[in-house]
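Hi Y.,

Following your request, here is the sequence exactly as I used it, all 324 residues.
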Amino acid sequence: MGKYKFQFDPETLEYKKVEFDLKTSIYKYFLPRFAASMIIGVLLFTISSFLFPLPIDIQLEEEKDALLLEFDHLNAKMTEAEHKLLAIEKHDDNVYRRIFQANPIPESVRKAGFGGTDRYKAYRGYENAELLTNTAKRLDILSKQLVVQSKSFDEIIDLVKDKEKMLASIPAIQPIALDQLTRFGSAFGYRIHPIYKIRKLHTGVDLTAPRGTPVHAAGDGIVVRADWAGGYGNCVRINHGYGYLTLYGHMKKYIVKPGQKVKRGDIIGYVGSTGLSTSPHLHYEVRINGKPVNPVNFYYNDLTDEEYDEMIKMSSTATTHIVE
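Below is the corresponding structure, written out as tokens. Let me know if you'd prefer a different format.
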């Protein structure tokens, strides 16, 4: 900027020299232009930030999306783990603990929550606070359930020790070989009786197989009855000790006698259709202290995991077609 400036005087019709000092020049010319430039710059920056996101914002958004995706994968894996743990818990209560006559783990213990102060207050205020909190809760619950299940297995191991005789006596095989089994007739549980047309507990399972198929003892024991038993027809009962008894009905014939000791897998008779029966099959029961239980929970000694799962599926979809 020049040191002098001329201004036209309309009265004298002459240009007169106008002198400004440095301070006046700054306040009158520089500062207004600078302020206007700053305001325009801020406005342009603000508008562009709305219309065009900054590189750092783009990066942060991509990182957030990646984290949310990881959380989705984590929750999917937890869901799978929860389903597997639930299956283990059911097997533990209905098979392992029942076999050793131990009480099931109470649901209140397995599903107990967490007391005390708010464990998840650290997540408050975050954009995805609900997602973070729910994921943390699921992890805590899953971890606690695993601890409970681990302690249950420790107890089962203690029960197993020094009980080889008991393990040999438990009815742990299917009395008809899987490759000779045609299908399941009636499953364990309540059903409409095919003759009496009333809701009645079916206290065993019906295993359909060709007439003459061998029937095997499900565990070591002593034959307590081998006779004609009314609706059961030719029937054998084996006392395995430890409160266990198995019953085999509708056989064509039996080849054991009362008082005879049998080993697991021994042939005790052959499939038939005696008593109240309309087609060849074996009616098989397992009783613990006189109470009927579902025999399918005991077919674990001679079946692979895949065969056991298939057998459970067959049993669950079985329909009543046999009169007994």
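The longest helix spans residues 55-99.

Thanks again,
Q.
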